[in-house]
Amino acid sequence: MIQVVCVKQVPDTETRVKPAADGRSLDPAGVTWVLNPYDEYAVEQALRVREQQGGGEVVALSVGGAGAQTMLRNVLALGADRAILLRTDLPGPDGLAVARALAAEIRALAPGLVWLGRQAVDDDQAQVGPILAELLGLPCATVAAAFALAGETATVERDIEGGREIVELTLPAVITADKGLNEPRYASLKGIMAAKKKTIAEKPAELGEPNLEVVALELPPARAAGRVVGQGAAAVPELVRVLRESAKVI
Amino acid sequence: MSILVFVEQREGRVRSVSREALGEATRLAATLGGPVIGVCPAVADPGLAALGEAGAEKVLLAVHPAFDRYDAAGYAQAAVAAVAAVRPALVLFGASAMGRDLAPRVAARLGVGLATDCTSLAVQDGRLVAARPVYAGKAIQKVAFPRSPALASLRPKVFAPVSVPGRSAAVEALAVEHDAAAARARVVRVAAAGAGKVDVTEAEIVVSGGRGLKGPEHFKLIEDLAEALGASVGASRAVVDAGWRPHAEQVGQTGKTVSPKLYVAVGISGAIQHLAGMSSSRCIVAINKDPEAPIFKVADYGIVGDLFEVVPALTEAVRKLDAHA
Cβ of B239 under 8 Å from any chain A Cβ? Predict the structure, then answer.
């Protein structure tokens, strides 16, 4: 079985975000780029399925700029067999545009499973997975916290408000991974060496016309400095008083 | 032009995110024009006429035996059928677990852009602009919609519902062709997390604990304070990664973004990933022994001290308030 893992290169979560001079995108100065944290769980699950099945191919697929090569090389070091980079220099294409570019590539691969992270931690769109599934005409479960595969049936558990939904899907299917789906592995030295010999194919991303127009990227209003009401348990009565009388929240 | 609102129900109860979306639709109708129309997939009418008081003029009810649980394909079909029927300029969803899953599917079927998890919608120079937190709240992205209808999902607890006393919504049947037996994905079971447990994203008050608690057994302190306040329990990434608490409780980047009216951070230093997920809370309280902890820079009120003394005292004080109330 071929599995496709869609991955994205994003700023590290420690990044202090600064808008660029265009007022619409991120200033890339000083940003450390990493594999989107949720994608780590997607990659790991695809590798586990391949191991469980004793074979098959895991293809890492990304829409991004030249820098995404480094991230894809890391995914190859984790164990993916090969990678495809759909090149674009657009700073933040919308979810439908990205899904269209991915779908065009995935159709030709005819995978049994398509994996994505639940969302990328940069633009937080959380929509490429289910849009991709619709474009491919495949069933989809988002935000998977548990996964099991028996024959052609996948069972996914996903957190909802106050509970969990258990979803059964018939393969081929699209699944987006939540944190906690598994414990992602680290790249081994052997994996890093092997990755050097694996291929990263590059072609232009067919994004089509944009479906959203980014007008601005701004910093949120700074919170006014608060005050320390006191030290230790002795400060509790004053805290309760201000919460009741000033903030009116209890 | 009309505004369509996806009305979410679970087990026959309309969820509060939908009342919030109806409220925002009602406010926007003043500039964009109305009417405000809902669409609700369900097995039976969950009392939709009452949504008139929440701002809906009319609600389209799509009844199907498979709609007792969330049925992604069927619900998407109902939403698309409603769009075809009312030709809205804007379609709103709650950015709940269901709305986050459903809205992209509807966007794909309509071939239009979707702005997810919005915290404000405004008409600027005659066009709709949605503001949405990105980088888990470290920045705000503003987007416009080159295609119609515009689709947006709204972050829970951010938009206020409206109240139109005495108004009743017209409820009309919406026909949906949906072969549930042919569906290749279905919800086979829903497991409850525990009676009355409110998700951190939907709670009025959240009490979160961090590494300062020193061990999972001390989360009892957090649970007791949460119970006294009628709050939900949250956690920092450090304690989730350490396996002390489930990921469903994690607040911050790679966890949940919350906007409660009161957020109490206990033993949380305030790493940038955590601050991103909670700094849009209305009121923030920090309890930490380190006066230099970054959490105090965003907190409205802080207590510097040993949480093992402060938290039980606070729990006791809140219980006394309730006893007097």
Answer: no
